[in-house]
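Field reference: sequence -> structure
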Amino acid sequence: MISAEQEPRAPSGRAVEERECALLARIAGRDSAAMKELYLLYHRRLARFLMRLTTRYDLAEEIINDTFWVIWQHAGDFRGASRVSTWILGIAYRRGLKTLRYAGPPPVDCDVETEPAADEPARQEELNEWLDVALRRLPLEQRTVIELAYQLGHSCEEIAAIMQCPVNTVKTRMFHARRKLKALLTTLAGPD
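Structure field:
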């Protein structure tokens, strides 16, 4: 039997932050192994975030590469005024906006299957599809605050730092996004 003292523990938020800061310091010294480690830590998170922002895999991968190039070039500029994740997502967000300006409008894909769900997993999948469609219909800024808050767990203050806007702007965008999502989801769900 394993005692509570012997059970493996997940690293605390502080330990994760210290590890990521140490990786940035090593990257500033041009340590490619540290860069690979940071890439592995953040690629999936950035891919999820950027796929919601761009809806195109090729653009999301391009933005991820651009983001890590900026990190490689500016790791020494990180001063710890925010969490490492906030700094990295801020870079990705700004690179994403720049890429979207030049990539043209996103493809429109708003088809929602309206077949009734036969069982609970199918019903959950249908709800997830509705949510994806509703999120895609939100303005970019509103969709981004929802993603950063609910998918990635950032506070309003961190989102403000990422998006380089006042906290009250983040709160306003979130308020309007929730209202629009409620209306959109009601419409997508139909009269039932």
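Note: Residues 109-118 have pLDDT under 50 and may be disordered.
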